Amino acid sequence: FITIILIGFSFLAKSQVAVHKLLSIGYVYQNQSFVDFGGKLLLTNNDNINYRVGASAMLGSTNSQFSVLPRLQADVLFNFRDNVDVKHGYYFLVGAETTTKYFTPKVGINIFGIVDVTGGYGFSFSNKTLNGKELKGFNMNVGINLPLVMLRDIL
After folding, report:
1. Surface-to-core class of residue 9, CB atoms within 10 Å of its CB (0-12 exposed, 13-18 middle, 19+ buried)
2. What is the pTM of this model?
3. Of the listed ranges 2-11, 43-52, 102-111, the one predicted with least confidence
4. 79 — pLDDT class (breaks 50, 70, 90)
5. 12, 55, 105, 126 — which has fewest CB within 10 A?
6. Residues in a beta bridge with 141
7. Measured between alpha carbons, how far is 75 from 94 in angstroms, rounded to an integer?
């Protein structure tokens, strides 16, 4: 067991993982419409596979009451195309998100590392509702991820 841990740390020490901070703004539909605002970390070792983790707040009105719902998510972005001009203009995306009310596996596409379009199916936790409404079923996300470095340069 200790050998496996040491090999894992050795691999991480040898790899040059770059971490990029992103501001995330988007729309989430989970049996209810929400505006999503938060941050993500993009972890990249090469351009073919990237990992992303994030936390955000979903804001919306549920049964005529304002609601705030915390959300955690993790994604893997991958594209193995070679020998093309715009090598990584898009990435396929596989991930999951969870809140205090539901869990959703999802798939989708990321365009130029900035725009996400994903879909999945939300499984609500038993007896968990948001202002009396159960959040389960079809899930759709459209989001924009802006690198903080870019925002600093613009502002």
Report:
1. exposed
2. 0.81
3. 2-11
4. confident
5. 126
6. 28, 118
7. 6
List b or e across 28-49, with b for residues whose CB sees 16 or more CB atoms inside 10 angstroms: bbbbbebebebebebebeeeee
pLDDT, position 7:
53
Is the separation of the CB atoms in 40 and 54 below 8 Å? yes
Show the tokens assigned to 105.
């596996």
The single-letter DSSP state of residue 143 is: E
| Cβ–Cβ under 8 Å, residues 40 and 20 | no
DSSP string, 98-124: EESSEEEEEEEEEETTTEEEEEEEEEE
CB of 42 closer than 8 Å to CB of 22 = yes
Write a three-state SS string for 24-90: EEEEEEECCEEEEEEEEEEEECCCCEEEEEEEEEEEEEECCEEEEEEEEEEEEEECCCCCCCCCCCE
Running DSSP on this structure, what letter comes out for residue 126? Answer: T
pLDDT digits (tens, 9 = 90+) for 4-24: 545 545 545 556 778 889 999
pLDDT at site 78: 86
Q: Is 152 left (phi over 0), alpha (psi -120 to 50) or beta?
A: alpha
Residue type, 48: N
